[in-house]
Amino acid sequence: MKIVDIEVFKVKPRWIFVKVNTDEGISGWGECIGGTRTETVVNCIKETSEYLIGKDPMEIERHWQLMYRFFFRGGPVHMTAVSGIEMALWDIKGKCYNAPVYDLLGGKVRDRLMVYSWIGGDRPDKVGEDALDRRSRGFKAVKLLATEEMHYIDSYDKVEKVLNNMQAIRDSVGMDLQVGIDFHGRVHKAMAKTLIKELEAFKPMFIEEPVLPENEEAFIDLAQRTNIPLATGERLCNRWDYKRLITSGAVDIIQPDAALCGGILETKKICAMAEAYDIAAAPHAPYGPVALAATFQIDACTQNVFIQEQSLGIHYNKGFDLLDFVKNKEIFHYNNGFAEVPKGPGLGIEMNEELIREVAVDDLSWSNPKWKNYDGTMAEW
Does the keyword Protein biosynthesis apply (predicted)? Predict the structure, then answer.
């Protein structure tokens, strides 16, 4: 079997799909993260994948090493290109052997996958109502963004808004739902200390990205101040990015993204590193259906994954949602807050290629909001 072609589809709202075709008619799907650099990522996919034409798709680790080991390497653009291609190769391999990817990675360790649902939107409000809705649909856990923009030192009014949101959730559903709180890198060290201390009373499931991951020393300081589990990892691009974080002891939960950190096997390697330090994993997956399906494969065979982000109905999905591009929609059917372990070959997902080709004709331009603080300085989104 040889790779004969690699196609790239830019799909609204903000997804990039990769399709790897072979001379035996077996094709595999992958997904890359576009974000604010869609065309840059598309060009990187093309440059990275030129080497693969005519190669055996089964030699995934060999191809990964050759795609990764440029003189200048790493970073989100390069690594999301590698990730999407790698996913597609695993999809081909699973289809060739008529087995789910997790069977090729050691077999499943769980019978079902616990998932959580987003509530509140980019500037969180009505979270009490949203929490009631999610509980009525059987979810056991939710996650919300903690705050809007926040300066290095900001007013206590901003803190009160965060606490009022958490109070609204507890008033609505009590302790029935576990609640993850995502600071999203919007909060700087001083305000993070204040917020985390105040939030302890609400017993959150975790605090995500209390500060930006590059502020490693601040992360260590915050970890020593609280008993709330701290989580991070969605911006990290490979196992070497995770190495210092894991050995620092500052994190309780890692959140690798299979569409960014190198793909399926690299994510599993990162989770294995964390498991050796008794650290949990809650993979990041707020993008499209292929990335989520690939992440489900990792979850199925990875012991220290305890919960999975899922993006069905997330506030970023405008115009299209995950199920629009999927034929076997049951793969993303959640029963009482759990997804079934996928049973189909490869990634277990059947894509609606006709619709993908139709909507991919449109240009794709998505950019995250540009926020400002009260004094006009740039605020983290």
Answer: no
